């Protein structure tokens, strides 16, 4: 790996090496720019990941966050990662494309918020991401027959088969979903073997996480990654431009000089850093409009062994609920099948079903007979759902973040609808003892993009309105949640912003 | 642990790192245990509560895990990345909730919680769960949130233990070794491969 002296003014410092930082790093380095990426976590060799859920905590962001609101969101194992590759080390790699309607929800319904980018401008980048990292999917995608995937889908586990069975019985379309993993060997990456531990880190590099896709490209092109370096401050010149990023490494503060900074630390950490330094917040929008997908789950028991830990966890998909006819809410949701590792499942049983005592002990026996379904649904932006700084000190002296999330009527209605329809699917698949768990997942918003500097933090390219050499490339810039998993649009926006930085003038 | 499960732990279907973690978990010295993070008083109450939150006899017989000891040990660790904003840090929340519940138990039922029988504790916990009980330091809602944390800690520790996984026939950790990375080939309607551990405690079909 190439190394840059901290006294050299590099072309770009990238903060965070996940879905937002890694594509940016690769594209800028390949164009000949000098790039230093700061990563708060460690390097992990893929082979050292473990399916043991407690041990796998080393790829989760475990610095404590404070969760508030009527729907306080769990962090740690659920939502935020650490290590070179960021949250893509633990992400589920479910890779549906954004739906064009979700990017113009306000035009459609008068609620939510439109994106300042047209779907047609983003689509080429979504396709590029799929080609770059390796995505598997069905030969013919029912909701978009023009779509092509480079790899055939992995083997269906019992949850996927049950969901397809249930959907067919009640007249919903379903298919193998688009999944960011490879099903045939490619270079040093092996084909998926259905080990089921995607969320604990992929050991044979089949999952298309950043550390086995964009990061090797970035390193080959001369980018430097500094692991275990936690950015917490900036140096600025008299005009307010950023001239250096200050980070904590082994207890000491170090500064890297730079021409520009790209923040890719995620919806919580990017907002936290900007709030802590007081930068880029003329609009008072930093930290606001925090969104999490309505991720309702439905679980049931079938009469045959399912072993929910086996196989790619969430293969089956239906897009039939992106705009359901009987909706009493705006927006929509995707449904996917759910396998699950035992500790995550058991935690859901406690927190989502409220079981304790003998009925908990008894119900744990159902694990190997369980099938699950999960939704990801629209979450409308609200200024009161937000990230702020708490009054407790965290890493490198930065206050711990406090995250408030409360469902509005729309999220509540969507949750009820999703619970009802997934229960119908589970019943039709032959499940009994069916229960619904209210939960949210993913983190979005807090530094939204827009066209009005008084109402948004960055412009439609991800560049700060206030500081011309500060960019943000992660899901904090999402103006709305959409119902697609965030990794693909984060990567697509990252490639698009990189083109803009390089003066390639992409479409808008 | 069952002999099949022990054989699998020695097999090439599990990595050395994962095997070491499970062996360390199984070898945790829980008897006798002196609390290192909670006070003696709070720890005694925690022992009484964990027995009610997650009764183990039907799965483990007399070889129950000391959940209170493992929770106390966990309270010295880095935590799980988040906490409810209105609860103090985990160790302090446990201390306040446990001692507070002891006082409420004494006021309401006339006994100290460590001397209360299972039914009495169930009555208390039902009220906690319904957000119908507060302590000196924690409101009804905050005590309920702490109780959710307690239940989660209990079940996470329990289901991660190799003896419990052996009883339930869970094979998640046998998804591939350090040499050949086997994964799982047999799934769905095809059921289980011959090597997979037997499920000793199947669901009760009372539906």
Automatic annotation (TrEMBL), chain A:
Keywords on this record?
FAD, Flavoprotein, Oxidoreductase
What residues form the membrane-spanning segments? none
Q: At the top level of its lineage, which domain of life is listed?
A: Bacteria
Q: Which residues form the 4Fe-4S ferredoxin-type domain?
A: 183-212
Q: Which SUPFAM superfamilies match?
A: FAD-linked reductases, C-terminal domain, FAD/NAD(P)-binding domain
Q: Which Pfam families match?
A: GMC_oxred_C (PF05199), GMC_oxred_N (PF00732)
Which InterPro entries does its entry note? 4Fe4S_Fe-S-bd, FAD/NAD-bd_sf, GMC_OxRdtase_N, GMC_OxRtase_C
For this protein, the record's PANTHER family field holds: LONG-CHAIN-ALCOHOL OXIDASE (PTHR46056:SF12)
Q: Which family does it belong to?
A: Belongs to the GMC oxidoreductase family.
- The entry's protein name is GMC family oxidoreductase
Q: Which organism is it from?
A: Candidatus Kirkpatrickella diaphorinae
Automatic annotation (TrEMBL), chain B:
Q: Name one Pfam family in it.
A: Gluconate_2-dh3
Recorded protein name is Gluconate 2-dehydrogenase subunit 3 family protein
């Amino acid at each position: 790996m190439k190394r840059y002296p901290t006294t050299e003014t590099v072309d770009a410092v990238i903060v965070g090496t996940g879905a937002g930082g890694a594509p940016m790093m690769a594209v800028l380095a390949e164009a000949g720019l000098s790039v230093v990426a700061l990563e708060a976590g460690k390097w992990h060799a893929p082979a050292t990941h473990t399916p043991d859920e407690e041990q796998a905590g080393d790829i989760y962001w475990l610095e404590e966050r404070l969760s508030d609101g009527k729907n306080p969101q769990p962090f740690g194992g659920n939502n935020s990662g650490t290590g070179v590759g960021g949250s893509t080390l633990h992400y589920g790699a479910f890779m549906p494309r954004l739906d064009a309607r979700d990017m113009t929800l306000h035009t459609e319904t008068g609620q939510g918020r439109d994106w300042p980018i047209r779907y047609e401008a983003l689509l080429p980048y979504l396709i590029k991401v799929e080609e770059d990292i390796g995505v598997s999917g069905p030969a013919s995608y029912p909701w978009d027959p023009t779509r092509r995937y480079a790899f055939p889908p992995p083997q269906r586990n019992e949850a996927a088969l049950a969901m397809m069975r249930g959907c067919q019985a009640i007249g919903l379309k379903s298919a193998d979903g688009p999944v960011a993993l490879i099903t045939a060997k490619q270079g040093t990456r092996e084909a998926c073997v259905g080990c089921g531990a995607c969320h604990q880190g992929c050991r044979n590099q089949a999952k298309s996480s950043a550390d086995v896709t964009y990061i090797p490209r970035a390193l080959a092109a001369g980018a430097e990654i500094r692991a275990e370096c936690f950015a917490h401050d900036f140096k600025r010149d008299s005009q307010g431009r950023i001239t250096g990023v200050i980070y904590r490494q082994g207890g000491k503060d170090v500064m890297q000089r730079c021409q520009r900074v790209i923040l890719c630390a995620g919806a919580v950490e990017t907002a936290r850093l900007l709030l802590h330094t007081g930068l880029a917040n003329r609009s008072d929008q930093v930290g606001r409009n925090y969104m999490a997908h309505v991720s309702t789950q439905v679980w049931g028991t079938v009469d045959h062994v399912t072993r929910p830990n086996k196989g790619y966890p969430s293969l089956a998909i239906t897009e039939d609920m992106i705009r359901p006819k009987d909706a009493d809410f705006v927006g929509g949701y995707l449904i996917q099948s759910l396998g699950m590792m035992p500790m995550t499942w058991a935690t859901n049983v406690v927190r989502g079903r409220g079981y304790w005592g003998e009925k908990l002990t008894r119900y744990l026996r159902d694990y190997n007979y369980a099938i699950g379904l999960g939704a990801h649904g629209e979450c409308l932006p609200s200024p009161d759902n937000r990230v702020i700084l708490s009054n407790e000190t965290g890493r490198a002296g930065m206050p711990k973040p406090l995250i408030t999330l409360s469902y509005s009527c729309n999220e509540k209605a969507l949750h009820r609808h999703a619970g009802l329809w997934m229960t119908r699917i589970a019943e039709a698949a032959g499940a009994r003892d069916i229960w619904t768990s209210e939960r949210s997942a993913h983190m979005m918003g807090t530094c939204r993009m827009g066209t009005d500097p008084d109402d948004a933090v960055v412009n439609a390219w991800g560049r700060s309105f206030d500081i011309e050499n500060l960019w943000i490339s992660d899901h904090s810039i999402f103006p709305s949640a959409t119902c697609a998993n965030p990794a693909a649009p984060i990567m697509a926006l990252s490639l698009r912003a990189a083109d803009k930085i390089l003066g390639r003038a992409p479409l808008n | 642990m069952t002999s099949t499960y022990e054989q699998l732990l020695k097999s090439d279907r599990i990595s050395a790192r994962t095997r070491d973690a499970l062996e360390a978990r199984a070898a945790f010295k829980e008897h006798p245990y002196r609390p290192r993070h909670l006070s003696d008083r709070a720890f005694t109450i925690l022992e009484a509560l964990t027995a009610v939150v997650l009764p183990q006899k039907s799965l483990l017989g007399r070889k129950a895990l000391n959940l209170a000891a493992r929770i106390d040990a966990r309270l010295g660790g880095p935590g799980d990345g988040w906490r409810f904003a209105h609860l103090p840090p985990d160790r302090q929340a446990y201390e306040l909730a446990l001692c507070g519940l002891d006082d409420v138990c004494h006021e309401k039922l006339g006994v100290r919680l460590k001397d209360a029988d299972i039914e009495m504790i169930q009555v208390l916990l039902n009220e906690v769960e319904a957000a119908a009980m507060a302590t000196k330091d924690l409101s009804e809602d905050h005590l309920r949130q702490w109780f959710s944390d307690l239940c989660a800690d209990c079940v996470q520790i329990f289901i991660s233990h190799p003896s419990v996984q052996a009883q339930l026939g869970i094979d998640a950790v046998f998804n591939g070794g350090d040499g050949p990375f086997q994964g799982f080939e047999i799934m769905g309607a095809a059921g289980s491969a011959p090597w997979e551990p037997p499920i000793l405690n199947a669901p009760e079909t009372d539906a």
